[in-house]
Predict the 3D structure of the following.
Amino acid sequence: QALRAVAAARGLPAIMAAVRRHARRIVSADGATFVLREGTMVHYADEDAIGPLWKGRRFPAQACISGAAILARESVVVEDIRVDPRIPQEAYRETFVRSLAMVPIGRDAPLGAIGAYWAVQRRATPDEVAALEALADATAAAVANADLLARLERAVALRDEFLSLAAHELNTPLTAVRLRAEALSRAAREVPGAPDLAPLHAAIGRLGETVAGLLEFQSASGQGISLDRAPVDLGEVVRSAAGALRARAEATGTALRVDAPAPVVGTWDGEKLARAIGHLLDNAVKFGRGLPVDVVVTDDAGDGQVFVRDRGPGVPDDARERIFGKFERAVSARHVGGLGLGLWMARAIAEAHGGTVTAAGADGEGATFTLRVPKRLLLDG
């Protein structure tokens, strides 16, 4: 139970709380401390005891028993603190402590120590010391994982901040470039033999989609997805999304076939649902090998459902959840453009509606993405 609690703790304060509580319980101690090494000092960072110990105080590592365990990288057992020369008597005089066991956290380079204390004179048994050592080993792993997670979270936050800044910085000059390109097109129509500016407009369009995608991601990540709900026909939403993408699909030879024979009305944000479905359709066109993409809208009890089926390479079993992550792509997506945010956005919008987006389909046999959203807004209470 103690090892599970330490492994489940997230962040140093939670780890320390779990350790001090369980260290005391597993050896029936009257107190327990969590000590952190800080260079040549030790910091008594947390405690759980029948009386005050040294929480918040710092001591030279060379002048206390926790420092001795850390520097020697081995456990220390003291049966009677009053006669052990390693004990700083002045620090212990006002406490209840008569006996203790101190184990280092980490074997090679201890990051601290766990102390267990008793109010009566006794010697910690080998089994008790072994239990504390097992807890210390788990604590070392948990602290290392917490540090790694904190580093990862900081890196992700910096990445998202950079992308947000880049999107905003690109948006202003992009608008100017778009206006200049339109002016050039108007002028070119009056000049015989003028160069074809369609590739320029296509490139500007792709850049605009990239910037729009980054701005959409930044808004959803930072502020969440707010919904403007109203009665909406899911079939109309799908037809609108398919219409917006039809020209791009036809450029790749892909036919978008929509099957929405009956109205499916729910309380949804139609604009955002259209965006989610658009992301699913865009994904299907990218990976569909130019083969038809089928979109089916159904009414399933209290939910509206949209199935988007392509005839592309499919999704491997081990990628069916991964591809919904930020900046994730399918295994075969190296030759395909895009930021790897479309599926993440589609799922985020569905989840904001209380729904889901899932992927299915065997590897090499096409993929089917299913968007499911409740037709009615469910309110707590």
User: Anything to note?
Assistant: The chain has a mean pLDDT of 87.
